[in-house]
Amino acid sequence: MTARILVVDDIPVNVRLLEAKLSAEYFEVLTASDGLSALEVAHAQAPDLILLDVMMPGMDGFEVAERLRSDPKTWHIPIVMITALTDTADRVRGLEAGADDFLSKPVNDIALFARVRSLARLKVMMDELRVRNATTGEFDILGEAPQNAEEDAANGRILMVESENLLARSVTEILTEAGHSIRRATSNNEALELGREPGLDLIMVNLSLAGEDGLRLCSQFRSQDETRHVPILLILEENELAQLAKGLEIGITDYLIRPIDRNELLARTRTQIRRRRYHDQLHRMLDNSLSLAYTDALTGVYNRRYMDAHLDRKILEMVEAQKPVSVMMLDIDHFKQVNDTYGHASGDAVLKAIAQRVTGGIRDFDLLARYGGEEFVVIMPSTPAEDSMMVAERLCRMIEAEPFEVPGSETPVVITASIGAATATKPAETAEALLARADTALYQAKNGGRNQVCLAEEPEAAVPTAPPAVAAGGT
Amino acid sequence: MTARILVVDDIPVNVRLLEAKLSAEYFEVLTASDGLSALEVAHAQAPDLILLDVMMPGMDGFEVAERLRSDPKTWHIPIVMITALTDTADRVRGLEAGADDFLSKPVNDIALFARVRSLARLKVMMDELRVRNATTGEFDILGEAPQNAEEDAANGRILMVESENLLARSVTEILTEAGHSIRRATSNNEALELGREPGLDLIMVNLSLAGEDGLRLCSQFRSQDETRHVPILLILEENELAQLAKGLEIGITDYLIRPIDRNELLARTRTQIRRRRYHDQLHRMLDNSLSLAYTDALTGVYNRRYMDAHLDRKILEMVEAQKPVSVMMLDIDHFKQVNDTYGHASGDAVLKAIAQRVTGGIRDFDLLARYGGEEFVVIMPSTPAEDSMMVAERLCRMIEAEPFEVPGSETPVVITASIGAATATKPAETAEALLARADTALYQAKNGGRNQVCLAEEPEAAVPTAPPAVAAGGT
Fold first, then answer.
1. CB contact under 8 A, A132 and B343
2. Structural domains of chain A, ranges and CATH numbers in brackets
3. Under an 8 A CB cutoff, do A289 and B287 touch?
4. Residue B135: what pLDDT?
């Protein structure tokens, strides 16, 4: 882990001291000697972390932190305040101004490096997500400073792992009063179990769990999928600081030293919950963008792109497992009339309703895609020809049975569909050839009077597959 | 960093020893006492790393490694072989079987943990990419074992940072003979400069560069965007092993100890290049999927989804900067006739050609999206009404001027378009209102005889905006 760190202090010897320490550990160091130039450097150079002196003439560290937090270009950079102040009220003020942590002068090297590495690691992970989201355009990397920090951290769902009843009760009281909801586990096993529940915003772990190793539990949370990215706040005694460095290395995200100060507890809880939610939001947006690429915007079923990517692989997979795979091609009958009579919006409504009805009529492991226009394809794994006929016949009946509500028509409109089905029997058949046979069968179903299913003939061994029927645009 | 590690050794006391060491550092440990059960555990539990004893009765470590590498479920798990063998030929055999590294018995703790953490970190990063890609369906997490490892690592582009001429020459000779192409830098600055060039597969750094610090350079490579993910192979002397742990922590990916063995050099180079290309491929596929979500499949320009996401923000941005933003809505005249006369495929060809011609006629900072059917929208930042009229008029002329090649027609077909333009003037105007005004203007252009541009009237202060014209489906 390497990182670019901005050191801000008005006393040159302090700057040089930190610079030497960090540089010896192969961090890159930027420096600033007052608040204003700190803001400038942070804005222009985008460091991975800022070490910020609190007491400076002119603009002090609190104000610098606040300004960094309200600038869309710098709000996400972690800040560690460095201070001679040991008063809890000052620590809380710093946290509320936006600091992620405090280190006391003289700075202890182990604490410094552990904290710096842990925060820089989180920052790099976030950056990767931010950059990727920025490419989609839904997310503007410059315009996403959270407007209401209080709100972003409200109603947190917190898991507390704590065997001391007294401490558990007082922490629960403080957090509940602030609007968070707390569940408590008293053993490692119970904690891992409760950690599996979705929607957790924060885990608090007491380092000295009765008879168990708190750090071991943190490590297990980090290797369990459901809790890998949930922030962990470690609660420890002043004399357990040596274990803190190990904890940060394992992946805990913050800590509180007993006796616990009410306001510090609330401030650190807020910071962690806010980061967690932001991280979640980035993940969700990314997943959403990815799923959009493979979804038909109108009907919400898979698009042709997805089907094209899947069908060849599915055929190979099935052939390897010596199972048949079938496809059906479904085309809405006289769809053009719906469009011409009731307008495009009504045509769209029918497409949506058909997609929904087909989804309800196929099996969970079948895959429905809109192939284009009014044409859908269903891929049916492990399905022999007879079964595919059964499913296709059922779909035909389901579509015909209940007339469709169409905007622009006072009474529901009867709509039918024609289906061509084909089953891959030869290992060598490609997706293209299979679809072409289904398309030919669909053409026969149309010619046979529509609202019916035709099964494709098996491809002849020597003769190449018949060319696909003309695209069924006007049928 | 925490990870699940599989320890494989036929001697129980060796297993217990490694298990104790790893567990004390909060790694999770799985164990197996022979080759077959190692394969089973690896397959079922998907560990993050495998520590593999070489000499075991029955299936030895080489064979286990080979089998792990050829199983699509395990090929990506890093393997460190643990061996009493010190013969270089054995090391090379292990690397060729698929090991990522070797540790000699008795295992040195610092080397062990540095290597384990470094490989586990890479693995976690890869997993994140693999999982995300798997959701897109283009990539099957189970079916992607590289079929031809040799080929995946051929023709590597390597940057060698080396001040010793003799060493540089012999390494270059070996690698060039194997088909790689080498560029050499002799100083840190030159190295960072050359590192900026795209397409680099591997960087080799001599730890003892004349007068400079090799690790500092590695750290700089890691903070420079272009080289952040390029593997680094460190070359060092036997007596510099202490610095290796630091190097692995900074992010170097592999190392070679002098004197350099030709086959070991080639094997490690191959492994690194292959991993780099795999990582690159995952990144590319992800970016590709993301861009698909915002691209119109037919024409390749932005889709409506992207435009909807952008326009509101662009308006706000422009209003803040006190600059006007204009939009134009362009609709192809009598498009239905093209479809009806020459078929859908010809209609599609015209849509593509129009998108291409419009792209050529707008400015670099304008944004073209297909809005639906035969309708396109152009967003024009910093553009007052007069300028938008000029651009729109030019587009009209460009489309009309040169008839379009249409499949199905022997002579090119004259096609025209109508355009409605509107400029956001009030800070309060939404994207929706702005587009509605452009749509009304488009309707006027159609009514005025098509093949012309109409400029929208400014919205009246008190009266709400006129409702948008009916979708121009049949115009």
1. no
2. 4-136 (3.40.50.2300), 149-288 (3.40.50.2300), 304-455 (3.30.70.270)
3. no
4. 61
